[in-house]
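Our preliminary data section would be incomplete without showing what the modeling component actually yields. Below, a chain of 132 amino acids is followed by its predicted structure, encoded as tokens that our downstream tools consume directly.
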Amino acid sequence: MSFTSGASTPLFAGPEGLWTADPEELAARLFVTVFAGQGAVPLPQKDVSEVYSTLAGLGGYSLPDVRSGNTQPLGLTVQLAQEAILTWERATVAVRLSAGAGPVSHTVTMLRFGPGILNAADPVAALKARLH
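Predicted structure:
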């Protein structure tokens, strides 16, 4: 599989394609897409909602601007994104953070092994290798 961008064919075929994808493959491709170009940033972070939007983009669809309730494909996207983030945590390449006393900010922060994954010849294979 190759990475896609813009109006080209999505990497996965809609929500169903994401749901039936190999979970490690999906997590690895999402990590590489979310943190693309962030390997040299001192503390690379992404808002969790951006991870959701990026995952939807890999499936070739977009999420509504107002995200509430258990609607589809939002529910499925949130589930799969959270599974991917757990996979990143297991591989020790990224971790969830929540901060703030008023409005709480939910982010995902790349850890020290993340830049090595991004700079590998095959980042997807490198992340999958960290899991085994």
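The CA atoms of residues 11 and 58 lie 5 Å apart. The longest helix spans residues 74-90. Preliminary results of this kind motivate Aim 1 of the renewal.
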